[in-house]
Write a structure and sequence with these properties.
single chain; alpha+beta; Glutaredoxin; Glutathione S-transferase Yfyf (Class Pi), Chain A, domain 2; four-stranded mixed beta sheet; 6% strand; globular
Length: 223
């Protein structure tokens, strides 16, 4: 078993949630050190403060420190290939290349508009910040274009990179979960049959359900 894995952050953070899901999928033991990055009630360890000023997520394994959630997931899959879900990062070079293409698509095309919508539709009301309806409309339009492409791909494949659940799908979960918590965000998924089916499948995985439970038990920044 792996030991010495530490995650610093709050489960409510989408970056932290992405890493936690990967850890659960890989059946890896880890310590979660909860850091409230909004209220700054905790003094950040020095290595976090220097490496990641935002403090959204920091992962430490021995003397290795990573702050990018997708890089952390890649690291976990390559460092512990035979533990837990072995298909998460593909079992061959072609599979991995396909997964990498989708990870880039998620980071470059899906994440920017979805993150903006998550803040406007889910976080702003909790933080009592007025919603910017122009920002919502613009990013909704961008995300619709992305999801139209996804819907076509998912009409042929069970999952984004093929017929197995991989990091390509996992990486979409945190933003998607927050989006479907609002009626407007939910329609982006339910109005597309294949996207709706896909999200139902990936969001019902045990690993993700564990993360959602942690988010509900410890809302962190929004308490």
């Amino acid at each position: 078993m792996a030991s010495g894995l530490q995650v610093f952050g709050q489960p409510a953070s989408t970056d932290v949630a992405r890493v936690l899901t990967c850890l659960f999928e890989k059946n890896l033991e880890f310590d979660l050190v909860r850091i409230d990055t909004f209220k700054r009630q905790h003094k950040l360890p020095e290595f976090i403060r220097l490496r990641d000023p935002s403090g959204q997520v920091t992962f430490k394994h021995g003397d290795k420190t990573l702050v990018d959630p997708r890089a952390i997931c890649r690291y976990l899959c390559t460092q512990f290939p035979n533990q837990g879900n072995r298909n998460l990062y593909g079992t061959g070079s072609l599979e991995r290349a396909s997964i990498e293409q989708w990870l880039q698509a998620e980071a470059q095309s899906f994440n920017p508009p979805s993150s903006a919508l998550v803040f406007q539709l889910a976080f702003a009301p909790l933080l009592e910040i007025p919603q910017d309806h122009m920002v919502i409309a613009e990013n909704e339009r961008k995300l619709q274009q992305v999801l139209n492409v996804y819907d076509e791909i998912l009409s042929k494949n069970e999952y984004l990179a093929g017929d197995e659940f991989t990091l390509a799908d996992l990486s979409h979960l945190p933003d998607s979960q927050y989006l479907v918590s609002s009626e407007r965000g939910m329609k982006l998924f339910t109005s597309r049959k294949n996207v709706a089916r896909w999200f139902d499948q990936i969001s019902s995985r045990k690993a993700w359900e564990q993360v959602v439970k942690m988010q509900m038990e410890h809302p962190g920044a929004f308490e």
